[in-house]
């Protein structure tokens, strides 16, 4: 019990004194995850909208695949990502392995199916008269799409927040694609795993408290947005 109490005290001391290494790890984690979510949103929202408003052969298959990908293990993403960007992989000449870009790509792969699937659900849950009314009033396809997305804005923001919650705490893909390099690719989850294995429980707990605080904030925002729907 004394050991645990000392770790907690040490963790809060590191946080309150704004330890440089903890700040660097936190900023690296936030930067990579935010960029990944922006990229995933740029792909997932338009694609999800198109699938949501369209009726075509194979639509059910796409939705089934997306449902499966929402639970995709992070180590699987890391495995296939490593195969593609390692020196012997097809993207090896780009030298992406063990870089923040590789980590961002891995997180993008994890977040895009979530955002796309939730966008489909948000689009389908809207009253179909919204789009028809916009068209009757003379809106072109682009304007109609903007109208529908505007009506579903809270659900779309919730989808993006859910995607962020998925990637901010993932460790498998980040470890395999980023390499956990100090000052470069070490983020919150990979640093927690490393410091705990080294016996630096206080340092790991400090990072864990920060990660839990971020996760709590994300989920609180998601709950708020879901109640706004």
**By helix and strand content, what is the structural category?**
mainly alpha
Mean pLDDT: 89
CATH superfamily: MetI-like
Q: Into which percent range does the helicity of residues fall?
A: over 70%
- Count of helices? 11
The number of strands is: 0
Taken together, the total number of domains comes to: 1
Major β-sheet profile: none
**Unreliably modeled segments:** none
Strand content: under 5%
Span of the ends, CA to CA: 45 Å
Radius of gyration: 21 Å
Overall geometric form: globular
Order of helices and strands: HHHHHHHHHHH
CATH C-level name: Mainly Alpha
Say what the CATH topology is: MetI-like fold
**CATH architecture assignment name:** Orthogonal Bundle
Properties at a glance:
229 residues; mainly alpha; 11 helices; 78% helix; 0% strand
């Amino acid at each position: 019990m004394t050991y645990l109490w000392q770790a907690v005290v040490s963790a809060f001391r590191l946080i309150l004194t704004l330890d440089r290494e903890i700040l660097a790890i936190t900023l690296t984690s936030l930067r990579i995850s935010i960029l990944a979510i922006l990229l995933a949103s740029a792909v997932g929202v338009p694609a999800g909208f198109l699938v949501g408003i369209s009726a075509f052969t194979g639509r059910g298959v796409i939705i089934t695949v997306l449902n499966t990908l929402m639970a995709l293990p992070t180590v699987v993403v890391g495995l296939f990502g490593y195969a593609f960007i390692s020196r012997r992989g097809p993207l090896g000449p780009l030298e992406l392995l063990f870089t923040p870009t590789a980590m961002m790509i891995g997180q993008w792969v994890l977040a895009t199916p979530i955002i796309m699937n939730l966008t489909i659900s948000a689009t389908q849950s809207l009253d179909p008269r919204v789009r028809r009314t916009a068209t009757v009033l003379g809106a072109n396809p682009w304007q109609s799409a903007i109208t529908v997305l505007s009506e579903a804005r809270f659900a779309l923001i919730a989808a993006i927040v859910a995607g962020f919650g998925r990637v901010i705490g993932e460790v498998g893909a980040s470890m395999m694609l980023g390499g956990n390099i100090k000052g470069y690719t070490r983020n919150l989850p990979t640093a927690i795993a490393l410091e705990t294995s080294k016996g630096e429980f206080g340092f790991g707990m400090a990072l864990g408290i920060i990660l839990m605080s971020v996760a709590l904030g994300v989920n609180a925002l998601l709950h708020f947005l879901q109640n706004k729907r």
